[in-house]
Amino acid sequence: MNVVALPDRRLLDAATSLAHLSERARALQVFGPTVDFDAPVWNLSDVKIGRPSAQQTHNLYFTRITERETRSMEGRVPFDPAFGNLIKAIIALREFARPVGADRYRKLLQAARLLYETMETRGFDPARLRSDNFYAAARAIEGTPGYKYNLGQDLEVIAEFVNKNALCKSRIVYTNPHPPQRLDAKSNKKAQQLRASKMPSEELIDAVIAMSDIVRERGDDRDILRAAIVELLLCAPWRINETLMLRAKSDRTKTGLDPATGETYEGFGFAYDGSKEADDAVKWVAPKMVEIARRAFADIVRITEPTRDIARWMERHPGRAYLAEPFRLADPSTQLSMKDLVVALGVRSLTAAVDWLTSNKVPTEKRDGKRWCRLDEVEAAMLRLQPKIPADLPQKLSQYLMLVPQHYFRDDLSTQYGVVTFVSDFQISDFLTSHERKNPSSGKTNKRPSVFERLEIHDSNGKAYRVTSHAFRHYLNTIAKDGGMSELDMARWSGRKRVEQNAAYYHGDGRQTKKRAREMLKTKAMGGRIVDAVDRLPPTDRDAFIEARINTLHITDIGACIQDWSLTPCSKYGQCGGCGDHLVIKGNPEHKARTARLLAEHESMLAQAKTEMDEGTYGASDWVAHNQKIVDGLRKTLAVHENPDLDDGKMVQV
């Protein structure tokens, strides 16, 4: 008896639905006609233009998980076509609905790879996907809680898409098993240790200063340029992309008032483009770092100005590339021999010239035993190498500060003066930390020593220092908070959209401010009820009371708070003016100005609430009581600032 297996109608329907969906996504050409929908890799570099200083190629690889990520298809295995079409359709249709950055799609691909590895027993057929595949993929995610949660969410995106379009035999029931990262989880011991590892030590900061001095003594402009950029990172809490995308005329000055001394000073800062949703702003340098910032800026301008001159030349001659004489602005149809090309490009040898032609796909022809190429095709290749700037930024290269010719920092390659590039993130990282790179052709590993290794600047264990550009941002945030800067000012200075993001960059425990407050209480440099409480205690109990009462301290925008958040959340959050756990720092001009503004606002709200109460509005009396308490507290705060009998800097509990 012959048994004939009839086709599964649901599987056929799912496969048909995916085929139709893939055709629709293919026809949309959301990334332009140059991106082949069926290719295992999509190059989105011409579509998703990132900041030039990142020097990042936006490739999406529709391939399986590999031991080591590469920048080519070498060693990669493409997805099965049906599964690949599913993920490509998701990306294409999401881009059609709402374009986002290539990084977002790379993360979605990471989740897809995990899902793909669970499907081997089902022939990698998306129509045979089941809920257990998604849960198995979620269990395979390794990394931090936040990373697990985000990838788990992307698995939900895939499951939702499959269900919505009926792309598999049965409905997927999947919920991300990884919880979102709680804010309080970032304050546990493990999280504190992780953040502390990002904080450079004072010893390392001293090593950076020593490095900068030695570099300037030796006079190598390539090192001086990168050392000057590092100095800027030490002068204010930058993100590296903000520094590397500065304009050439970004320096700003102002007359400021030092909150500590009350004396005026000449402020110095830089106008920059905000990132991570923060607004464009001016990042002001700490007063004690102004001299260093001015020197660093002057060095950067001096070293990069010749490259800006080349950029200006190209802007005056659109469509022409900057070649060496006598080929600059020559007839585009001019035929160049390889010897001519060596001169025109400024490379070291005929081999280097031929390699350049090959890598940049410049057509050549042989005549009379020689290889020739056209000048216009050489110039076109050079223009293709110029950096692409995102549409929301100024398009003139000459407006930017961190410009250098191609291969400027390389010893093994000729500097290409006609190709303007931005100093990149990696070139700063390469300067501060040694890297190893494997040569794909020879298989040999080449180590590029950091500046600390080259200058033999070692730590107490005899090892060269290692530091990331982002570590300086952590360092400055920590010392700013320990020095008394308010959370709001710190967020503004650091270019953050939200104040709560400050926590990830603080690696102390309030020890310095807490210690200072305790000393002030012991030496009568503090006033208010808390001082009276200490005086009433027996001398033997006072130290214990002070340590328990001032267990923590942080600066607010109108003073200092001694509420111990480790015991209980603050029940008066945002109402510091009427709180007994709030201390006034007498004479602080920023706190005083903020208090005056808040008082005016709350007096207006109090007057309105009283009017409503007189008219019999239900609940208005509660608002009167609330605002009256805040107004009374703010008036007492302002009175402390205006009291001539109190010394500036004294803390007073009101």
Molecular structure report:
With 654 residues, the chain is α+β, with helices and mostly antiparallel strands. Among the domains are: 9-181, no CATH class; 509-653, no CATH class. Helix content is 45%, strand content 11%. The chain has 22 helices and 17 strands. The chain has a five-stranded mixed β-sheet with strand order 13-17-16-15-14. A three-stranded antiparallel β-sheet has the order 3-4-5, with helices on one face. A three-stranded antiparallel β-sheet has the order 6-8-7. Helix 11 (338-345) crosses helix 12 (350-359) and helix 21 runs antiparallel to helix 22 (620-641).
- Our count of helices gives 22
Structural class by secondary-structure content: alpha+beta
Instruction: Identify low-pLDDT runs.
Output: none
Helix percent band: 40-55%
The global form is globular
Number of strands: 17
Query: Going across the major beta sheet, what is the strand order?
Result: 13-17-16-15-14
Mean pLDDT: 81
Distance between the termini: 97 Å
Strand content: 5-15%
Major sheet details: 5 strands, mixed
Radius of gyration: 32 Å
